[in-house]
Every structure is written in C-alpha cells, then in structure tokens.
Amino acid sequence: MVSVVYEAPESIQDAVKLLADSRIKANVLAGGTDLIIQMQGQNEKRLVVDVKKIPSMMDAIMTDEGLILGPSISCAEFTAREDIKAVYPGLVESAYLIGSTQVQGRCSIGGNLCNSSPAADTIPPLIVNRAQCVIAGPNGERTVATEDFVTGVGQNCMEKDELLASIRIPAPAANTSDAYLRFIPRSEMDIAVVGAAVSVTLDDSGICTTARVSIGAVAVTALLVGEAANALVGTQLDDSALQAAADAASAAARPITDRRGTVEYRKQVVGVLVKRAAKIAAERAGG
Amino acid sequence: MAKTHVTTTVNGDAMEFLCEPGDTLLQALRNELGLTGTKEGCGSGDCGACSVTVNGRLVCSCLVLGVEAEGAEIGTVEGIGDSDKLHVIQEKFLEHAALQCGICTPGLIVSAKALLEENPDPTEEEARYYLAGNLCRCTGYDKILRAVMDAAETMRGDV
After folding, report:
1. What is the per-residue pLDDT across A201-260, written as a single tens digit (0 to 9) for each?
2. CATH number of the domain to which A156 belongs
3. Range(s) of the domain holding residue B103
4. At B91, is the secondary structure helix, strand, or coil?
5. Could you tell me if A189 and A99 are in contact, meaning their C-beta atoms sit under 8 angstroms apart?
6. ipTM exceeding cut-off 0.90 for this assembly
7. Same-domain status, B70 and B94
8. Residue of A nearest to B51 (CA)
9. Are B133 and A106 in contact (CB < 8 Å)?
C-alpha cells in the first residue's frame, strides 16, 4: 500500500502552494482513473492533492467567447451538457468514448490531458477547437496551446509546482463544426488504435474556408496536421480534397507497431478516419 | 502513519470510519465498515464488480480513495433492497438466473439501478453499452440482459 498524505484544498492558490512546498513526490488527483492505478504497488510516500473541492476546477461555463472548462469535471457530467454538445459535438463525443459508465463518472478532460497518453481521446478535438491550457504556478498563470501541452509519452509541459487550472476553448466562427472518430477493435471500453479530429468552417456556398486536422495514437503526441487542413481549404470537400487530406494525415503519422496495430495499418486507417471525420464535421457545419 | 477519520453517508445512514489515506473506498467499505457486498474483481477499474454510487454517480470504488468519501453520499448494493424485501432488479436476477458465481452480481445490480434511474426505458443496445463496464465471466450476459430488461418493464409498470 502506497503511503499517502491527502490534501483537498479549496482554491487554485492553495493547491499550487501545496505542490510547490511539498518535499515528497506530489500528484494531483482529479478523477483518479489513471492516478490510483499508477499508485498501486508504489512504495514512495507521496502527497495527493485532490482538486475537486476547487469550484473552478469543476465548472463548465459557456459564454459568448466560448467554453471555460474546469479540467476536473467528470466526463459523465460534461457529456450530459447539451449546450456544450451543440457547439463542440466532436469534443463531447470524444469525452464520451473514454472508459465505461463507471470510469465516465470520475474521469475528466484535464486528467486526460495531464496523463498525456498518445492515445488520449479528447486531445485531438481540443487541438482542432484551438483549446488553450491555463496553467497556474507559484508565479501566476501561463497559457499553452493544447498542441504544445503534451511533450512525450506521459510527459507534458507542466512543472512539478504547476496545476492545469482551466481549459479555454474559443467560440467557433459561424458555420463551423467538429467531429472525432477513433478506431478500436472492440465496440466499447478500449483504447484508440487511431483517432482523428477535424474542424471545418464553410462559407455560404459550401466552400471550406478554414480547417484543423489533428490525429491521435499515431505518434508520441497528438499531431496538428497543417498539410491535411490545407488540402481541405478552398474546396467543397469533394473526394479528391478528402483523399488529399487523408494522404497528408497518413504521411504525417509516425506510429509504432504494438499489440493494437502495426505501423502500416495505423497510417492507412488514420487517413480513412480523417476523411470520414471531415465529412461529418462538414455536415454539422451546414455543408 | 495516522489514519484519517472520515464522516460519510452510506445508503442514507450517517457513518464514520478510519482509514489510511491511500486506501480505496472499496477497501474502506469492506474492511472498515464491514459492507462486503461490494466485491473486488480487478482492482483497476476494468471489471465493475466494485460499482457503487458516489453522490448519485456510478463509479468503481477501487478507483476512489476512502478519504474522498468525506461528506459524500455513497450507495452500495446493501442499500438496493429493503431488509425484508428484495428490489425488483434483485428479484429479476433470481428469476432469470442471471448469475452463476455471483462475484459480478452486486456491481451489476448497482449499475442496473443507476441505468434505470437515468433511462427507465432503455433499448437492449443502450443497456448493453451502459453495462459494458460490468464484466461477467460466467453467464455470457444474455440472462443478465433479460433480467435488466424485465426489471425495467416491471419498474415502468408496463406489466
């Protein structure tokens, strides 16, 4: 049994102070669906800072500027929010795909980010929606774009005394929508073999004016693929444009072979998912 | 290391216990409160045998710390029926023989109740997705689904 010192601060400042002052290893506890498993079999004494008593960590507020997302709100609560789903359907779908009903009751988008798995489902849709990570530390706040947050497998840009305090997602332009698809060999409760998120903005004649494409589980971090987006912009998302985007995504992917899939398979499937996600996003955007 | 004192509500009753801060809620329920209806299967959130509700939300108690129960409302399988009468879901599990070894059963009953509170009229597909986090290695799920769908019908008053 791991030896734990448990603290449940009620403000971001108190949480950061606990992390900064800790002389033992410190972990932030949100839903615990990764952390509590990772602590099993560990002997090193550690501080666990439960951030769920901090109101702003548990809120999700829609404003004219966009979504101010408390990183620790459970996916079950997040995915039940019709107001959020109406604006960011792909992001909500990705949150819904994580784990079982029981895991949904605890897991969070902030936790998904901070666990920094290459296969994290919510990261590609956060990237295409231009989400910004607000990180609180002893010297105040800094903001990092989601595509720059994760730096490696299980690694991210945060220091030990920092806390992911908020996720800010700007309101999308008119006629913009998103979609996220992942491939798993089972029908439920699995980890992405490949994931793809696409956001598109269409003009009145159905021409794509802006696009964002992000792919997951095909590199050490989720990738923002500018070449795939460029292949969509200026087109009506016809088959040749979709194929060009798919080819760009396949070319950008740098997957590994593991028990879930081979390099060749993942490069192929990521293109297919980009095509399909782009079509869904376009339908939602009014194309 | 000093144990932590936790004050909580379990199945509507005020309760308190002492636990190590690293103990899971599952360990606290079973070892400190003697509520052994909640089972440990995998201990890693995959099997759902330890399903309980925390503040009305279905969770795996092996993925919750005991100290997180402070001030919370916990629901376990012991609170599903009355002391002298089984809940409809429990009756239907018996009627349909929806169990063999029984380790998954408490978790499935807690999850089925959460499902039917959220969605009193689920399709079989919706029920299967909702209960996908409750693994049974004996029955093949067919009888479990029949019991849950029958319980749903009875609870809606359709029969």
Report:
1. 999 999 999 999 999 999 999 999 999 999 999 999 999 999 999 999 999 999 999 988
2. 3.30.465.10
3. 88-156
4. helix
5. yes
6. yes
7. no
8. A102
9. no
